[in-house]
Specification:
This protein has helices spanning 60-80, 113-117, 125-133, 172-176, 212-223, 239-243, 274-286, and strands at residues 13-21, 25-33, 36-38, 42-45, 50-53, 86-96, 99-106, 141-144, 148-155, 165-168, 181-185, 188-191, 194-198, 201-209, 253-256. It is an alpha+beta fold.
Length: 296
Amino acid sequence: SRLVIEECLVGPEISAFYLCDGERAVALSTAQDHKRIFDDDRGPNTGGMGAFSPSSLMTPALADFALTRVVEPVLRGMQAAGEPYIGFLYVSLMLTDAGPMVIEFNVRFGDPEAQVVLPRIDGAFARTLMAAATGRLSDASLPVSTDCCVGVVLASRGYPASAESGQPIDGLTEAAAREGAVVFHAGTRQDDGRIVTAGGRVLTVVGRGVDFETAMDAAYGAVDVIHFDGMQYRRDIGRKALLQPGRARCHRANFFADSSADSDGVRLGRAGDARRGRSIDRTLRELGDDGGVGAS
């Protein structure tokens, strides 16, 4: 007999990733994913049909907001409750008219975001994981590559409602041999010496390059040589990055436990969507040079 009324939030989402040691957090860069099954964000939601990293929506001011107003208070609260949090913290932020809002937390890295963030980490990742596990992130830094990454998910026929399995997959060796490409397996298995499909989201093909155009070319060039019966995928992964005014240049940054990400501040509006463009522009302006915050 209880009615729950929820606020409808509208705006682009940013996925921000942190490694925590119970007291401190190290930023592991950002990504934007694509939930809908079809191009142009149409069709039903999925677990994720692709992603790109980094997101140029994460300006220095927004990065500072996420770290000091979202992540660090969570860590202090968990510590005060006697349950210090050690591990990955995945924060999903939506840029709304009222400012940045937390949509969800995840205590994991995320899929397919991990596939486009991890290849950009240049530092001693295992050593940093050990530092987090032993409460020593204050001594750690984690360089992130200047490159961009675009990941395209290849799914089975019927996904997300259902999924076929057992279809032989061709072209994996050729795809992995292409320059700038890496193929991550998800819903696959071996059957009589062949790799076959074994789930809804089968593979994530990641392209890496000095800019998003190069990364997209690498990813879709590798996708072109892979085939299995019923294969479906989106053909617009990374296009949002290309539509960002000024375009995000990937950059090198050292993420320290006591600092936030350094990022090119670019304001994004979807092509032809002036209202949303004004909304995002306003949100980022409120998180501008004066360090102001658009939402509490």
